[in-house]
Amino acid sequence: MHLIQVDSVQRWMEDLKLMTDCECMCILQSKPISIEKDEQNELMLSSQYSTCDNLQLLLKRAWIISTELTRIAQKLEKNRWQRVHSMTVRINCHVRSMINEYNMFTRNSSEEMHQFEKLLIDKCSEFTAFTERCIQTEDEQILKSMKSCINETLTTIAQYFGQLIELVLTHEAQNLLRQIELSDSAYVTESAISSLFSLTQEGAHLCRIIAQEGGVVTLFKICRQDCFRGLFPQTLRTLASICCVEEGMHQLEKVDGILCLADILTDNSHSEATHAEAAAVIAQITSPHLTFTQHLSSFLENMEEIVTALVKLCQEASSGEVFLLASAALANITFFDTMACEILLQLNAMKILLAACSDKRLVDTPYSRDQVVTILANMSVLDQCASEIIQGNGIQLLMEMLFEKSSSGNAAEVAACERVQQKSAVTLARLSRDPEVAEAAVKLSCIPRLIKLCRSPTERNNSDSVLVACLAALRRLAVMSPDGLEDSDFQQLVKPRLVDSFLLCTNMEESFV
Questions:
Q1: Residue 424: exposure state from Cβ atoms within 10 A (0-12, 13-18, ≥19)
Q2: What is the C-alpha to C-alpha distance for residues 41 and 503, in angstroms, rounded to an integer?
Q3: For residues 48 and 17, is the Cβ–Cβ distance under 8 A?
Q4: Protein inscuteable homologue LGN-binding domain: which residues (predicted)?
């Protein structure tokens, strides 16, 4: 479950507050304390989260309960009976607190939910009584016989808890979608969409629930009403999140979502923010990492106008973020269908993308360069691409990308840098079948850089994929310019089988004592 990224000490303080609340509730038998109206209620979870959405507080409590249930199972395996009992008492109180907190802000809760609440509370009480009996006996045989019953009870609690949380989340998703559908107020609709977006950030399971409850259908209705134009960016951002799951994609296809997105992208009266968020939805639904894009048959029907609009958005982008979203969508589309590369070539996309790379205002991160070089790599399979690359000074750009390094050391950025190095080498290998490209690459000293990447694991951040791509590019250039290599480089990196050169390079920093 997704949680807000915070400092570890702050997280410990938050969890400590919850545990303290829990122990207080144990002593007071879950009875509320009467306080003055102007004082903060120290026993309420919301006291430290006054700015947070109530549902997020519920999700945090649910995450703690889930974690505690796992820990109880671990302690039970080790026969830590005293610890099992104290944790069981804590679970009991967390469950009661969660239910009380939820009932304070919810409305129209179903009879089924109340039944599960009662079942869960009763089973937790039974569990607490059970473990209390365990700590009062030292007979190993009795404890062994009780262990299976405790395990069974623990499993039942986990099942009831999971079913209750599922009902709660479904109920809240239904309430938000009902607000969006029935409200004529832009303010109420905006608030409901904002809450819905917050839910989508809690993980794929919540996105699945929202999609199953008709979230995609409801949001596309908003995107088809001019009176809600000001809400289009937020609505499209929420749609992009929901479409990370298969249920969301199926719903998008059913409501002709692709056609709606194409209309938005080609309508010049929409704001750049709206176009950018529509591009983000396109990037999501065409992601090569998804395995359920095959049914997007309507995408092919609208692909040419979508690609045209995205190229225009790249060309006119006012910020790096807009360019990133538009170029990411284009990059994914080039994986999605090879015809997209031909369309891009006709639209002079190569020239536009290469020009953007020299504008630090637009392409200022490894993530943006990753999208650009992905498009170049996929377009480089076309024979006509070579002349476009040379005219746009693309070989120089690919050479620069071979030096891509992370400035922050952030894991995601390092991975993006590796992808940039790998794809730039792949592009060079593909383009170097053209003698003119190979000659330009040799003049720009690409061969020494490729050798350095092959021989120095630190230069490629120990990436095997970068190594394979560099070996392939080096072998292609060596055919065109054999004089550019020293004999040792030729003997080790070019002459052997690729797998042998790969093994040689990966073992270069090993030492045997």
A1: buried
A2: 64
A3: yes
A4: 4-48
The domain of 497 spans: 382-512
Is the pLDDT at 481 greater than 90, yes or no? Answer: no
Q: What is the arithmetic mean of pLDDT over 88-93?
A: 88
DSSP letter (8 states) at residue 38: T
Last residue of a domain, one of 170, 193, 212: 170
Other residues' Cβ atoms within 10 Å of the Cβ of residue 299:
22
Q: What are the angstrom distances between the C-alpha of 323 and each of 137, 187, 303, 357, 389?
A: 68, 30, 19, 11, 20
Residue 46 pLDDT more than 50? no
From 115, 109, 14, select the one nearest 57 (Cα to Cα): 14
The one-letter amino acid code at 18 reads: L
In a domain, 296, yes or no: no
Write the DSSP assignment of 399-450 as a string of letters.
HHHTT---SS--HHHHHHHHHHHHHHHHHHHHHTTSHHHHHHHHHTTHHHHH
Does residue 32 have a pLDDT over 60?
A: no
Number of domains in the chain: 2
Tokens 């923010």 identify what position? 273
Number of CB atoms found within 10 A of residue 293's CB:
17
- For residue 196, being part of any structural domain is answered with no
- Per-residue confidence (pLDDT) for residue 18, from 0 to 100: 54
Residue 482 lies inside a defined structural domain of this protein: yes
Cβ proximity of 307 and 353 under 8 Å: no
Kindly indicate the confidence band of residue 11, based on its pLDDT and cuts at 50, 70 and 90.
Answer: low
pLDDT at 123 over 80: yes
- With 70 as the cut, is the pLDDT of residue 295 above it? no
Spatial distance between the Cα atoms of 88 and 130, rounded to a whole number of angstroms: 10
Of 154, 170, 186, which residue sits at a domain end? Answer: 170
pTM exceeds 0.85, yes or no: no
